[in-house]
Design a protein that fits this description.
Blueprint lengths: L3 E2 L2 H11 L1 H9 L5 E7 L3 H16 L3 E7 L5 H12 L6 E4 L9 H5 L13 H8 L8 H12 L8 E5 L6 H10 L3 E5 L6 H5 L4 E4 L17 E4 L3 E2 L5 E2 L4 H4 L5 E2 L6 H18 L3
Parallel strand pairs: 1-11, 2-3, 2-4, 5-6, 5-7, 7-8, 8-11
Antiparallel strand pairs: 9-10
Helix pairs in contact: 1-11, 3-11, 7-8, 7-11
The structure holds the ligand Nc1nc2c(c(=O)[nH]1)N[C@@H](CN(C=O)c1ccc(C(=O)N[C@@H](CCC(=O)O)C(=O)O)cc1)CN2 and magnesium ion.
Length: about 280
């Protein structure tokens, strides 16, 4: 069997096109959704992601600005700038690109963002809202994964879903969303004993371990839906996922590629969240 490829780039384009009506309705009321992205330090990958986010907004005629600060920026100065943005009515979404330099407390910084403008959905009150089934903003990567599963008409009710990785930005919200959709969810990590025994039971397998090609075809249930959240740059400069694509595609029913899978969906869902933040101001 060769798996269907779940094309995140194509799906992200379709979602973007479908947003045009909502954007026009806002513009008719003189509201242009606006995002401010804060980047601290000079991590090269973060610079690419931030640029991609800003370009996506600009191409659709939305406002976006990127504020770049040196790694030496103090936590106080950063939090003061966020407070100013919280009070700026032209800014609907505020995003602090992660990871932050080690001298800054990411939790403290994120919790300075007004929850109504936290389009990443990382603020502790937005995490709590998601956990209690009343989300204000769904974190972009797991939100994008849910859209991919929806586009594949995956029946989640009663399905066995296994999520590998329990980060606040991917694994934990992912597990909550799958559970809410009716799946039986197991959360594993890279140290889980006999990981393959878990992954081989999964009808839906979401991998977010940060370990290149850790999941191989022999660990996958035939016909399973495999979602690879990993983005690892090899020494040859090529991107690799957390799943070994060549062996996995021979076993899975459908699989996301890297690049061109989950990554583009993360960016488009940021757009969705920012438009929603602007609509709430109507
Ligand atoms: N504040 C946030 N920080 C981070 C998030 C986030 O959602 N919010 N997620 C990741 C990084 N990220 C977005 O910020 C992100 C990473 C990768 C992609 C993407 O489109 N990748 C492409 C490949 C790009 C390349 O060539 O390097 C793909 O997979 O096709 C989008 C968003 C951590 N930080
Ligand atoms: Mg991808």
């Amino acid at each position: 069997m060769t798996a269907r490829i779940i094309d995140g780039k194509k799906l992200a384009e379709t979602i973007k096109q479908n947003l045009a009506e909502r954007i026009n309705a806002l513009k008719e009321k003189n509201i242009i959704p606006g995002l401010t992205v804060i980047l601290v330090g000079d991590d090269p990958a973060s610079q690419v992601y931030v640029r991609n986010k800003a370009n996506t907004f600009t191409k659709l005629g939305l406002n976006s600005s990127v504020e770049q600060y040196p790694a030496s920026l103090s936590e106080e100065a950063l939090c003061n700038r966020i407070r100013e943005l919280n009070n700026d009515p032209s800014v609907h979404g505020i995003l602090v690109q992660l990871p932050l330099p080690a001298n800054l407390d990411a939790n403290k910084v994120i919790e300075t963002i007004s929850p109504e403008k936290d389009v990443d959905g990382f603020h502790i009150s937005n995490a709590g809202a998601l956990m209690t089934g009343r989300p204000l903003f769904i974190p972009c990567t797991p939100y994008g994964v849910m859209k991919m599963l929806e586009s594949e008409n995956v029946e989640l009710r009663g399905a066995e879903a296994v999520v590998i990785g329990a980060s606040n930005i991917v694994g934990k919200p992912m597990a909550l969303l799958l559970q809410k959709a009716g799946a039986t969810v197991t959360i594993c990590n890279s140290k889980t004993k006999d990981l393959a025994a878990h992954t081989r039971r999964a009808d839906v397998l979401v991998v977010a371990t940060g370990r290149p090609e850790m999941i191989t075809g022999d660990m996958i249930k035939p016909g399973a839906i495999v979602i690879d959240v990993g983005i690892n740059r090899g020494s040859d400069g090529k991107l690799k996922g957390d799943v070994e694509f060549s062996s996995a595609k021979e076993v899975a029913g459908a699989i996301t590629p890297v690049p061109g899978g989950v990554g583009p969906m993360t960016i488009v869902m940021l757009l969705v969240n920012t438009i929603e933040a602007a609509e709430r101001k109507l």
